Amino acid sequence: MKRYLPLLLAVCFTALAVPVPFQAWSDARSLPSEASLATKLPSFAACEAGDFDRSKIAPDVLAGYDNLTKIVSTLKADDPLRATMDKTLTQMRATLTKTAPASTPTMPASVTEALKNARAWLEKNEPKGWQAFSSSADARDARKASQAALAAATLGKPNAALAALLAAHQLDPQNPQHLVNLGGVLETLALPGEALVVLDAAARLTKNDVGALGWSNMATLNANRGVALADLHRWNEAEAALASALKAGPMLAEARLGLARVLTCQGKTAQAAKFARAGQRRTPVAQATNPASDVVETAVPPGELGGATSGGQNASAQLPPSLTFDLSRGQDFTLPNLKLPQTLKDAVVLLDKYQKLHDDLHARWETIRKRSEEVDAQLRRRPAASPIIEARRRALWQARLHVRDEPTVKRLYEAQNKSDLEVNKVDTDFSHCSGGCIADEFIRKARTSEELDALCNAAMTTQHDKWRSAMHSHAQNLGTYLKAAYKLETALAANYSDPLLHEQASLDAEFLVVTEFMGYVTEALHWAHDIKVFACYESSTTNTSDPIAGELVMPRTDPCKAVYDGMSLSFSVSVVGFSISCDTMSVSAATPGWIGAFGSFSQSFGNKEYTVTVGIQEGVSVGVGSVSAGATSQQGAYVSWGSDGITDAGVSITTGASVGATHGSVGGSKDVITDVTGALSGKWSFIASPGGVK
């Protein structure tokens, strides 16, 4: 097997509650409604010609315009302030359009002219970077140039990737991957005419095979082509290209967002809103909710697009955590058995023990509460992490907030809530009702103190038997509910690598258990107190010397490590390192070399985004077993960039259960990243996107 790129790789699997061969961070996003997105589509689509040229606007003015755009996007459609700010934004856009009108995109007559224009763009906009690359060793070898382009794109510098791809194509002109990626880069750099010409040339070379992550190469080409056609306002052709891309590549969220723009500009707002919503996530809804299936998202011919997702208009606002996080590390919990009194006198004897247990639990509850406040205060004082990491952690937070909404947990919660009401009813019916209580009846009937004691004893004994039965039933329901809820909460906690966030989530799980068990003990305490107050009990019959409850044990998970969550990957290519695991990911270059001479993506490219996919080579052992040589590998990673930095990332490892590999060999699971040489396949893609609806 020919080896392409040096790689540092760390991958580890565990048996998940639900097998998840592909993990996209964007799949954990909570989706807005289609109606809210529909109000933002006109601004997102920018259908009108004659917008302004961002490269001709002063940085501070451009920053002010972008900030105002973001503020407006956060306001609800019926907010009175939105109408005022929309008017200000429209006036500002008109002024900028007059000051720096956008030039009409050119359509080169040939690939040669398109490439000449691309070089001219570099000479004008990135003269230092272009010169630095041209003098580097990467400019003299096609493989190194492609590798350097991948590194630059992964680092968030498509302008640097342009320089390297021009060299890669010049040195290896028959390689369609260079042209497809070059077309995506040109579109991202606002050269749609050049992109279209290059992509049309790529179409004559591209075979109907698969690239990185097992995604269709032709689908990637059509996605780039559709976005370029949209920038040229050729809406019908763009729709056809994007629909074709989506049909062949249902994982291409970029195509869904492209269709959202195209359909908006054709006046099909309702359909556009569906695609805008579906494009917020990487995995199509039907495929995400049934990962074991071969569901392909529907993409019908142009003009007949019926929808972007399965289900209702706003289906799957939040996917179940089992589909977006590793839930394999949840801890088991067993509710301690609480001794219940056999007789009325037993209840009086147990009263002080119930009080002592309640006080101990309350002290434990208070300790957890105070520590939670300390942790929360420390977290508030910390600087924010990168936007992509903060988004991942927000998604985890949302999953924690909605633990009770998980179907199994919800059903068990409702069952224990119902049984708790039955316990309360027994107590309330005896002496705490608003009128006609059992106690009221025998007090009214009794004519002597002896008769009162007899009636009281009989009525309370009957009610005590009902209470014991209700308490036993409630204990079973409460224990089953807490077992499921605690397992899910600790499983979510295990997705945090950050010690403070892991502790916060663990404390929340413990707080729930202590609160609920303390509530159960309170039921016993309250009933025993009532029995003592009425004082109509006989001698005890039960030995109450033993402990009245077992120890409340709440095991914690360990914080997430880069090797256990089943979806961890780390590699280096050229000067750039990439890693993703748990709740963290990073892309960095300790010594960026010539790439550092290029400007950053966020400086002048507006709302545009792009995605880079990287494939792992077929035949390389990445887990227990390997993909056979010549087979299609769906292993790899992707990272998406926008003006605010990294917007999404994901990883797919499908061939094993645990790994500790050295030079392609398979060993036991380890807690360290291990060198693996040459495991990248050489397949990678650059996919342009209009960006998401903000």
From TrEMBL:
<dbReference type="InterPro" id="IPR019734">
    <property type="entry name" value="TPR_rpt"/>
</dbReference>
<protein>
    <submittedName>
        <fullName>Tetratricopeptide (TPR) repeat protein</fullName>
    </submittedName>
</protein>
<dbReference type="InterPro" id="IPR011990">
    <property type="entry name" value="TPR-like_helical_dom_sf"/>
</dbReference>
<keyword id="KW-0732">Signal</keyword>
<feature type="signal peptide">
    <location>
        <begin position="1"/>
        <end position="17"/>
    </location>
</feature>
